[in-house]
Design goal:
Elements lengths: L1 H9 L1 H5 L7 H26 L3 H19 L6 H26 L6 H11 L1 H23 L4 H25 L11
């Protein structure tokens, strides 16, 4: 598992250049993140539960992420570029997890309820978001000639809304696909 994760994260730029049907090249990358979460996620969550570690993780990941952004590291070598890009993504994920762990005690928070929906249905989100996102990216590109920050935001919101509607329907109609069938 660790060898797969390492090879995928190091060579993703090369893998991404291979034309594949059904987004298989993207699936290779996201499966590496999924595998990384399965391999190390429980250790990270237990570490975060110790007093003060969540605050330290937020501070450290913020510093790393902001440093990468400020230095605008975008090397031309594909292996280094893959490492920088994946470090940025993993750092962002490692930032969000302790942030929400600190916010979990906030009662009746609608934003956290919505985010919890996406977290509980993360496999459905992973499976459905790319085809939906591509449709909105093409629409935005037709209208504005490309996806800028506002176009990206529009794509994100539209995709999130479609997923919010689509996921309960698919969970009800096809409960065995992701084992959402109610236990008796």
């Amino acid at each position: 598992t660790y060898i797969y994760i390492l090879l995928t994260l190091v060579f993703f730029d090369s893998i991404e250049q291979i034309s594949t049907p059904f987004f298989l090249n993207d699936a290779i990358r996201w499966c590496a993140y999924y595998s990384l979460g399965n391999a190390l996620g429980s250790y990270y969550l237990r570490w975060l539960e110790k007093n003060g570690n969540a605050y330290f993780a937020i501070l450290l990941t913020s510093i790393i992420y902001i440093t990468i952004i400020l230095l605008q590291i975008s090397p031309s070598h594909s292996i280094i570029n893959s490492l920088v890009s994946n470090t940025k993504t993993i750092t962002f994920i490692a930032f969000v997890i302790p942030l929400f762990s600190l916010l979990k005690n906030v009662q009746n928070n609608k934003v956290l309820h919505i985010l919890s929906f996406y977290g509980k249905n993360s496999l459905s989100v992973l499976g459905f978001h790319v085809p939906i996102l591509i449709i909105f990216q093409r629409i935005v590109t037709k209208i504005w000639g490309g996806v800028n920050y506002w176009g990206g935001f529009i794509c994100f919101v539209a995709t999130a809304l479609i997923l919010y509607i689509l996921i309960p329907i698919t969970n009800k109609l096809f409960p065995n696909i992701l084992n959402t069938k109610k236990k008796l």
